[in-house]
Amino acid sequence: MEYAEILHRCFRCGFCKLPSDYTDINCPSYLKFKFETYSPGGRMWLLKAWLNKDIKTTPRLAEILFSCTACGNCVEHCVFPAFKEDLLNAFIAGKGELVNEKAIPPKVRDYFEAIYLHGNPFKRLRKNRANWATELNLESFSGQTYLFYVGCLGSYDENGQKMAYHTAKLMIDGGVSFGILGDKESCDGNEVRSMGEMELFKHIAEKNIQEFRNAGVENIITLSPHAYHSFKNDYSQLGGHFNVYHYSHILKDLIGKKEAVTSGTSIPVTFHDPCYLGRHNNDYQAARDVLRAIPGIELVEMDRTMNNALCCGGGGGNFYTDILGGGPDSPARVRVREALETGAEVLVVACPQCILMFEDAIKSEGISEKLNVMDLSEVVQSGLP
């Protein structure tokens, strides 16, 4: 297994599952299950024992490895710089070994199959991929400055469609030159890679790279931080070199042109840092700059923020496989309680996975009358308060 040589170096000090002030549990799977094997250090030892054939391949082993959300907290807070950057790579490689052995959880298998056969995890028709944009009469990409890559959630999920719509409307109003691929768009493959199916990821990435090149794409705006990360960091390793932007970067440039409607009162909002925008790409300010520029908004921060933010629990494919499940100790429910404690009335997100995770968590917590979750583009479009 690739990265096997680093496994023995971990002696499970435990800092990898904590934030920088050591006051909370920041590893989503350990937070949920409370067993050491679900922590990064536990996974390191588990992988080592498995490779040494001290333990057998079992459904339990697969569940533990695939419960990792790839949030990057372990990389951020590991105290050993000699190998910390490869922690997630080792976990992904371990998943890859299970993929090769065909010993993956059924929901993971079903996810891979849906992506391969349908180009999206929902098994929806490709011809319906641009239905979200019908009212906007968007142009297909034909040499505009930007390609707006919407992704699977933006194309098929109701919340993601709203995010895509609001973002596109703001870009139209702001005079941004962009087009979409419509039914030529396919999955970005980030979750496929984080779940260890490298051959399928390579297949997806190479097809997308060729599609982008054929269309003459140079600049890409993504709706999802997951696609942003993959296009920016992973595609380049396969020869796909593009200028990649998350939509929050574009909104930051446009916010000065937006005339927000304000009643003279202020509304407290808090922002949740998406893992693939924050820890994975060190971008913590663009969305905050947008929120601070809107009259009448008071930005309040949660205790865990920026590089210490708690993952919503949807990364690493868990949004689709639901290995972490619900319950009061699920990361999303812990996170919305933390947001409520700030006194915020709105929890602002910038990721289509996060918005659904938190909407479900708010309903489960019974706090829908106290806390609302909104996407960044929707906040700008509405001009809170």
Question: Which structural traits does this protein have?
Answer:
8 strands, 17 helices, alpha/beta, Rossmann fold, 3 domains, globular, 385 residues
Plain-language structure description:
The chain has 385 residues and is α/β, with parallel strands linked by helices. It folds into 3 domains: 4-104, no CATH class; 122-252, Rossmann fold; 258-382, 3-Layer(aba) Sandwich (Rossmann fold), CATH 3.40.50. The chain has 17 helices and 8 strands. A 4-stranded parallel beta sheet has the order 2-1-3-4. A 4-stranded parallel beta sheet has the order 6-5-7-8, sandwiched between helices. Helix 8 crosses helix 17. The termini are far apart. The model is unreliable at 258-262 (pLDDT under 50).
Principal-axis shape:
globular
The quaternary structure here is single chain
CATH fold-level label of the largest domain:
Rossmann fold
Q: How much is the radius of gyration in Å?
A: 20 Å
Strand order of the largest sheet: 2-1-3-4
Look at the helices and sheets and give the structural class. alpha/beta
Query: What count of helical segments does DSSP give?
Result: 17
Examine the secondary-structure arrangement and name the CATH architecture of the largest domain: 3-Layer(aba) Sandwich
Mean pLDDT: 94
Q: What is the terminal-to-terminal distance? A: 53 Å
Q: Helical residue percent?
A: 40-55%
Q: Which sequence of SSEs, written as H and E, runs from N to C?
A: HHHHHHEHHEHHEHEHEHEHHEHEH
> How many strands, which pairing sense, and closed or not: the largest β-sheet?
4 strands, parallel
**Low-confidence segments, ≥5 residues, pLDDT <50?**
258-262
Tell me the strand percentage band: 5-15%
How many discrete domains? 3
